[in-house]
């Protein structure tokens, strides 16, 4: 009888220890299971930010300021146009992912566009980058950025692929020529098209592409100083050309109107640009 009691006692102690060990294992595995169920993994966000920043660099990323970058991928990203008005950019999100900020200021929205993550960077020049981080060959090849333009503004595509925002014939800013790079830093063919007032970026990757691919529309509003410089340089170019023509035609060296005009135009452009910028 004593042997039976001792055996039962031993069995209970082993069972209790096994149950406790199983509880520890379950507790340890619970956070990972919860993350897989939909919670943003900080590690995944950090890895995505590292991929983006390896592609863009970090030197021109503006420090993140509360309220200047959308909290979720479903919110509208805003930036300034050249005349002080505001342009709104909707990210191509299929999921209302919450943004996670890197130490350098990149905000990542993991898996916000199917198998692609999205990211936003504000730049020190006052512009903004909206980036798609494409994970694999099964990801979408088109990313649609809805635009909320200033009243009366229109879109115009340029020969280099960039898209300018115009109002009353004046450029308010532009989406710079599109680019996309693979995991090795090689260029991936990409282009914009304007569709129903939205900017659509196509990224022509294939099964042989090294993933992830980072693709980026960059918005840059023309600053008032830059526009003043362009206007002033135009005026000075004309004045310089006329003056150079006269000097070349009547000068002792006899260079002639053409060469004199060319030299004068170059000098006039540089002089006007500097004066206009610092007005």
What does this structure look like?
Helix 3 runs antiparallel to helix 4 (257-277). The strands form 2 sheets. Strands 3, 4, 5, 6, 8, 9, 10, 11, 14 and 15 form a 10-stranded antiparallel sheet that branches. Strands 1-2-7-13-12 form a 5-stranded antiparallel sheet, with no helix packed on it. 35% of the residues lie in helices and 28% in strands. It starts with a helix and ends with a helix. With 279 residues, it is of the alpha+beta class. The chain folds into 3 domains: 1-39; 42-222, no CATH class; 226-277, no CATH class. It has helices spanning 2-36, 42-56, 224-250, 257-277; strands at 76-80, 86-90, 100-101, 107-113, 116-122, 128-134, 142-148, 154-157, 163-167, 170-175, 179-181, 190-195, 198-203, 213-216, 218-221.
Short description:
This protein is α+β, with helices and mostly antiparallel strands and 279 residues long. The protein has helices spanning 2-36, 42-56, 224-250, 257-277, and strands at 76-80, 86-90, 100-101, 107-113, 116-122, 128-134, 142-148, 154-157, 163-167, 170-175, 179-181, 190-195, 198-203, 213-216, 218-221.
Which class of secondary structure composition applies to the elements?
alpha+beta
Domain count: the total is 3
Q: State the end-to-end distance.
A: 104 Å
Poorly predicted regions are 1-39, 224-229, 273-279
